[in-house]
Amino acid sequence: MERADSKIATGLDAFPFFAKYGHYVLATVVLVSIVNVILRRYSKSSSIVSKEPVATKELSPDEGELSYRAPVSERDRDNRYVIRDAEFNEYETAVGPEDEPYLPKDLQHVKFDYKRPSEEEIVERSLQFYKIADARRTLRFFSPDPVPREVIRNIVRAAGTSPSGAHTEPWTFVLVSNTSMKENIREIVEREEEINYLKRMGKKWTTDLQPLKTDWRKEYLTTAPYLILVFKQDYGFLPNGKRKIHYYKEMSVAIACGILITAIQYAGLVTLTSTPLNCGPALRVLLDRPVNEKLVLLLPVGYPAEDATVPALKRKDLDEVLVEFE
């Protein structure tokens, strides 16, 4: 036993640092390993609260602030609301056999039904469409006058004709006209927008918005007869319940929103493209949308108020936005 100890001591003498501090190094390595294991286990058990964006709210049986309640699957260990959106990388998480398309393999291709107009006609059409689009303005003052629901449904139907990656159609349009629901939406938005304007957005951003006379108050959310909330589907589901990849979902939904806004203008109505920060998860839960959907835009839709005003803005000239090669 003495010989073994002697050999060990002799070996350590060759490394004076380890001979003197080796037990500290060993203790540090063991401690770091233990902490790492604990953190990994905690991260797995509470990953739902470690990712942004997160909205939390204490659960209380006697509180009556909001009418929405997060599902049990979206509460943490302390029974707090933990509302977040799903995360899904469409290019890393392929589902199903790679040689099996989502669309039918024998998908029929039919002749395109098209009657070619004259050059004079397409010039006239393009000019008329430009005039309609150029008259579009962002409105913050709405009339409460009712709008036929059929009109709004036709507008959304038009937006649904948008092209999409692999024809996955990764969008959901939620139409809200219920007064109580609109009040809840406004409460959520204004609560977050007040924080946005006071803290999150910063001095420069709020300064740039001053000429437009915007603030955290959003009266139009309860004045306009309709609210359209556009959700992006990060992924879909196959008939067998497995995930369906959505390609180019951001671009696809953006195009659909452009068609939606243009259809609103063409119908003779007005809107506002609202993108309130940090409201998406709470609004998703309020509207009972699944975790694979994320809020992209919130648009109030209706007629303008009689005394509505808009900023006297000027758009860029064509030569400022168009580069031509002939």
TrEMBL record:
<dbReference type="InterPro" id="IPR000415">
    <property type="entry name" value="Nitroreductase-like"/>
</dbReference>
<dbReference type="GO" id="GO:0032553">
    <property type="term" value="F:ribonucleotide binding"/>
</dbReference>
<keyword id="KW-0812">Transmembrane</keyword>
<keyword id="KW-0472">Membrane</keyword>
<keyword id="KW-0285">Flavoprotein</keyword>
<comment type="similarity">
    <text>Belongs to the nitroreductase family.</text>
</comment>
<dbReference type="GO" id="GO:0140616">
    <property type="term" value="F:iodotyrosine deiodinase activity"/>
</dbReference>
<keyword id="KW-0560">Oxidoreductase</keyword>
<dbReference type="InterPro" id="IPR029479">
    <property type="entry name" value="Nitroreductase"/>
</dbReference>
<dbReference type="InterPro" id="IPR050627">
    <property type="entry name" value="Nitroreductase/BluB"/>
</dbReference>
<dbReference type="GO" id="GO:0006570">
    <property type="term" value="P:tyrosine metabolic process"/>
</dbReference>
<dbReference type="Pfam" id="PF00881">
    <property type="entry name" value="Nitroreductase"/>
</dbReference>
<feature type="domain" description="Nitroreductase">
    <location>
        <begin position="135"/>
        <end position="303"/>
    </location>
</feature>
<dbReference type="GO" id="GO:0005886">
    <property type="term" value="C:plasma membrane"/>
</dbReference>
<keyword id="KW-0288">FMN</keyword>
<feature type="transmembrane region" description="Helical">
    <location>
        <begin position="251"/>
        <end position="269"/>
    </location>
</feature>
<feature type="transmembrane region" description="Helical">
    <location>
        <begin position="21"/>
        <end position="39"/>
    </location>
</feature>
<protein>
    <recommendedName>
        <fullName>Nitroreductase domain-containing protein</fullName>
    </recommendedName>
</protein>
<keyword id="KW-1133">Transmembrane helix</keyword>
